[in-house]
Design a protein that fits this description.
Elements (H helix, E strand, L loop, with lengths): L2 E5 L2 E3 L5 E8 L2 E4 L2 E6 L6 E6 L5 E3 L7 E6 L4 E6 L8 E14 L2 E8 L3 E5 L2
Parallel strand pairs: 2-12
Antiparallel strand pairs: 1-3, 3-9, 4-10, 5-6, 5-10, 6-7, 8-9, 10-11, 10-12
């Protein structure tokens, strides 16, 4: 069974920093794009940032210059370094791997996998 597990959420003061981690586990052959989404209360889930396997990144305008996404392909991990956080960054943050490939005796499977989410609260 393939799963993504996030960690690193919590309470942080405005202007502070926080680092989120996401680890993929299971019969993984390869993971292409990985990303972070967030969902604030009463709002739709939105893309925060994503990163391709070769390291190309894309950011939402609201976090550009403040957040940095990175990954460790050898350990099937993705990170989100959050800096200069604002109260409007408060949300549940989800890790996503829309291009996760597994391999078994049955062949290859292409999956879109989500983590369970980690809550980030920005408040003084």
């Amino acid at each position: 069974q393939v799963q993504l597990v996030e960690s690193g959420g919590g309470l942080v003061q405005p202007g502070g920093s926080l680092r989120l981690s996401c680890t993929a586990s299971g019969r993984i052959f390869r993971i292409d794009t990985m990303g972070w989404y967030r969902q604030a209360p009463g709002k739709e889930r939105e893309l925060v940032a994503d990163i391709s396997r070769d390291g190309s990144t894309h950011y939402a305008g609201s976090v550009k210059g403040r957040f940095t996404i990175s990954r460790d392909n050898a350990r099937d991990m993705v990170f989100l370094q959050m800096s200069s956080v604002k109260p409007e960054d408060t949300a549940v943050y989800y890790c996503n791997a829309p291009g996760l490939i597994t391999r078994s005796s049955s062949g290859y499977r292409y999956l879109d996998v989500w983590g369970q989410g980690t809550l980030v609260t920005v408040s003084s």
